[in-house]
Amino acid sequence: MAGSRRRSRRHWPDYLLARQKGGSLYYYWKHPVSKREYGLGYDFAEAAAQAREANAALAAERAPKARLIDRIKGRDSNTVSAWLDVFEGILNRRTGKKGRERSPNTIKTDRARLKILREHFDDKLITNVTTRDCADLLEKLQEKGQARQAQSIRSFMVDCFNEAITSGWLDLGKNPAGIVKTVTPIVKRARLNLQQFNRILERAKTNSEAWMETALMLAILSGQRVGDIAAMQFSDVRPDEHDRIFLHVIQDKEGHPIRIPLALGLPQWPGTTIGSVIERARKRGIVGAKHICHHQVSVGFAKAGAIVSAAALSKNFTKLLREEFNEEEILQQWPGKTPPTFHEIRSLAKSLYEEIGVNTMTLLGHKSPDVAAIYADKRGEWWTVELPKKAAS
Q1: Is the confidence at residue 2, as pLDDT, over 90?
Q2: Given this model, what pLDDT does residue 169 score?
Q3: Residues 219 and 301 in one domain
Q4: Distance CA 70, CA 85 (A)
Q5: Residue 240 binned pLDDT confidence (cut-offs 50, 70, 90)
Q6: CA within 20 to 30 Å of 74's CA: 127, 134, 143, 296, which one?
Q7: 346 among known catalytic residues
Q8: Residue 209's domain spans which residues?
């Protein structure tokens, strides 16, 4: 009897099972990897058809070779990895905002995103990539607590596969990432208050090179982003058309051209201005150094006088914070949140300057309907930050 049962199942689809249930055979399909079983009912013909359909889909996903239709269309070597090589070239030919060259940070970010896609999709045929494949990548990132990274990667995948459609690697309307749900990150990073900033600043004076103190003071007094702080050069201090001396900043992120008066400062540091911070950096720095924040001794590949990168500033800020605040204090100071990064100095500067009447929309280069209209009207002209009335008078 057993032999007869085995012979009768010889031509069953793979992974199709049957068990007695209610006096009849009930059919199941068992996933070969997850081992999960799916009920298919009592009708053998219907169960067998569904099992064959599932097996075909599974084989298409796992097949190392292209399907016949891909071979006919000449797409049997069109792997995701091969397409990403092409897409990288497309990215390199793109221009940045307002026709400018793409910034080094943007190029670095794109390379990191390409690496993530290469590792996830590997040599899978691009025509076999499914929405589930794309969703799996985002889920992995979110499980690691990288919600913002997942949000960024989703947009990058949509762009990547749209370009593949334009280039004929995918059929029209076949973008597998297009309907993946948008990731909405929850902001968990804590803000930085004045007392916390001052503790990190004092720590920098004793536990870091002089460029870190310079960077912290430039950040709090100018309100600029870490990339803009790193890029500041001594030559950016120059006169305008009326011979008034300003620090000139072209913001890396938005490209806003901003002129900041050297006399700008905060009452929390009496006698200290942007101008005095820059002058102090010049006097104690390396003769001939171009950047205000520069290495004063050779470190690794960085030579004395070379620029201190934005990554180094951010990393050193986190190091100082961890040195100044022990684990218990971190939990007390920022309960349930990630400790602040260098970027949070910008938010603190905004709050402090608003208290004394400085137009922070201009200083920080933020957009609002009114300010955006002004930027559009200025057509690339410099936006000048005005001193608060007390300081100006």
Answers
A1: no
A2: 92
A3: yes
A4: 20
A5: confident
A6: 134
A7: yes
A8: 194-392
234 in a structural domain: yes
Catalytic residue among 225, 256, 259, 291: 225
Catalytic residue check, 375 = yes
Asked if residue 47 and residue 72 are part of one domain, the reply reads no
Backbone phi and psi for residue 216, each to the nearest 5 degrees, phi listed first: -65, -45
Considering the chain, what is the average pLDDT of its residues?
85
Residues 252 and 332 in one domain: yes
| Residues 351, 331 share a domain | yes
Which residue blocks in 167-225 are alpha helix, DSSP H? 194-207, 210-222
Q: Is 225 a catalytic residue?
A: yes
Give yes or no for residue 372 having a pLDDT over 50.
no
Residue 14: pLDDT above 80? yes
Determine the pLDDT at residue 377.
42
**Among 73, 174, 343, 350, which one carries the catalytic annotation?**
343
Alpha-carbon distance values, 364 to 106, 228, 349 (Å): 20, 11, 9
Task: Report the alpha-carbon angle 55-59-65, nearest 5.
Answer: 160
* Residue 366 maps to a domain: yes
Least confident of 234-238, 312-316, 325-329: 325-329
Question: Among all chains, which residue has been given the structure tokens 């920098």?
Answer: 204
Q: How many domains does the chain have?
A: 3
Residue 337, judged by CB atoms within 10 A of its CB (0-12, 13-18, 19+), counts as middle
- pLDDT tens per residue across span 202-214: 999 998 899 999 9
Residues 138 and 199 in one domain: no
Q: Would you state the pLDDT for residue 390?
A: 65
Q: Is residue 79 located within the same domain as residue 47?
A: no
Q: Are residues 371 and 356 in the same domain?
A: yes
Reply yes or no on whether 253 is catalytic: yes
pTM of the predicted model, to two decimals? 0.57
Q: Are residues 267 and 224 in the same domain?
A: yes
Which CATH number covers residue 227?
Answer: 1.10.443.10
Catalytic residue among 253, 303, 322, 389: 253
Question: 55-85 burial, b for 16+ CB within 10 Å, e for fewer?
Answer: beeeeeeeeeebbeebeeeebbebbbeebbe
Q: Is 238 a catalytic residue?
A: no
pLDDT in tens, 106-144: 888 899 999 999 999 988 899 989 999 999 999 998 888
